[in-house]
């Protein structure tokens, strides 16, 4: 049965998916290719954009949790929603602070290229890919259900 809570879960999952895909995998890498955008400027823009994205993601995560709690969808949808939310929390609490510290170092360095590269970025990309897969699966599960 396709009820209101299922439709809301679909909407939240698809909106969240689209925002992450557009920002993380289109805007983020492309801004560094724009003429005149230095590493420091690109990182400053990225911090603003990701702060806004993460705020919207947090709102969508709360809306998803409330909708799942009230609507009591199938187990698969509940588990997928939980994984998406937990992945976001890991990013916000465990990964973003380290990325922000590195961004601060790069932006204040006399020679930004002298700041060692960080492997933390790969963890963020991996969690973004996980989140995209989970949100896509959540959308499919609710549409099919």
Q: Topology, pairings included?
A:
Blueprint lengths: L3 H28 L7 H33 L3 H34 L11 H25 L1
Helix pairs in contact: 1-2, 1-4, 2-3, 3-4
Tell me the helix content. over 70%
**Gap between N and C termini, in Å?**
7 Å
Q: How many strands appear in the DSSP assignment?
A: 0
The SSE string, one letter per element, is: HHHH
Contiguous uncertain segments of 5+ residues: none
Properties at a glance:
145 residues, mainly alpha, 4 helices, 83% helix
Structure description:
Keywords: Membrane, Transmembrane, Transmembrane helix. This is Transmembrane protein. It is a single chain. This protein has 145 residues and is mainly α. It has one domain. It is 83% helix and 0% strand. The protein has helices at 4-31, 39-71, 75-108, 120-144. Helix 1 packs antiparallel against helix 2 (39-71), helix 2 (39-71) runs antiparallel to helix 3 (75-108) and helix 3 (75-108) runs antiparallel to helix 4. The protein starts with a helix and ends with a helix. The model has no long low-confidence stretch (mean pLDDT 93).
Quick overview:
Helices cover 83% and strands 0% of the residues. It has 4 helices and no strands.
